[in-house]
């Protein structure tokens, strides 16, 4: 912090945050975490600090994470070439074993460790634990990539009730015990909906929803579901942003109050969104 920043100014910042702290105390916030914010070590530390701070002021934070780059890295080391169809990883029997190792093992436990080191109380689970995420095969061409059929949220509610930050890796299973690779945004939307979360924050590698995808100054700060659908029809929302917006609409349809798509590369963007009137990224709200 700037040495010229006086104690009085620090106190002023805290008092300005008070109304937001009051509004979010006891409320559920789901954070979908991935992308550059997860790869850059300094950013990762800041995100974990933000989550622990929110946890300590009484916000019930649930962290849902991906780990695509780490999966590709291990596949590369094992001499297995990643293959994608429509942006989804083709997941054969060998690949789903790698996905489980990376997501439920290395990535999940490292995030839990980070949160604990920052003073939080965290517990890592996968979508297979307590049959949290039930799934079926999405498309035979993709192999073990799952479409969510049901969410059993009790185990997450139990952890929140006992004061833990649940850290969830997005692997699902079916009745036969097959494991499935689940899209992280889709899983976060369904989990947030099942929890009736106050807000879902989706951390990405862009500023938010842009009128011109090549111009960050054209950020749209807030959009309703009907406006978002029109922007999709008009071709303003395109490419990888389409499934993200569909996940936002899905989350609100399942009971989430609102969803924010934000740039995870900006330090402390979560705190700016939750504890200031400035906000960060694009908020998607119901009509």
How do you describe this structure in short?
The chain is an alpha/beta fold and 287 residues long.
Descriptive notes:
By secondary structure, the chain is an alpha/beta fold. The chain has a single domain, classed as 3-Layer(aba) Sandwich (Carbamate kinase), CATH 3.40.1160.10. The protein has ten helices and 14 strands. Strands 5-8-2-1-11-13-14-12 form an eight-stranded mixed sheet, with helices on both faces. A two-stranded antiparallel sheet has the order 3-4. It has a two-stranded antiparallel ribbon with strand order 6-7. Helix 4 (68-77) packs across helix 5 and helix 7 (184-194) runs parallel beside helix 9 (241-253). The longest helix is centred in the middle third of the chain and has 25 residues, at 93-117. The chain is globular and about 60 Å long.
Any descriptors?
287 residues; alpha/beta; Carbamate kinase; 8-stranded mixed sheet; two-stranded antiparallel ribbon; 14 strands; 42% helix; 22% strand; globular
Q: Largest sheet, described in full?
A: 8 strands, mixed
The number of distinct structural domains comes to 1
Proportion in helices: 40-55%
Give average pLDDT, whole number. 90
The helix/strand class is alpha/beta
By CATH reckoning, the class would read Alpha Beta
Q: Would you list the SSEs in sequence order as H and E?
A: HEHHEHEEHEEEHEEEHEEHHEHE
Could you please say which CATH topology applies here?
A: Carbamate kinase
Instruction: Compute the number of strand runs.
Output: 14
- Order of neighbouring strands in the sheet with most strands: 5-8-2-1-11-13-14-12
Shape: globular
Show unreliable segments. none
Q: Indicate the proportion of strand residues.
A: 15-25%
The CATH superfamily is identified as Acetylglutamate kinase-like
Distance between the termini: 40 Å
The assigned CATH architecture is 3-Layer(aba) Sandwich
Q: Give the count of helical stretches.
A: 10
Whole-angstrom Rg: 19 Å
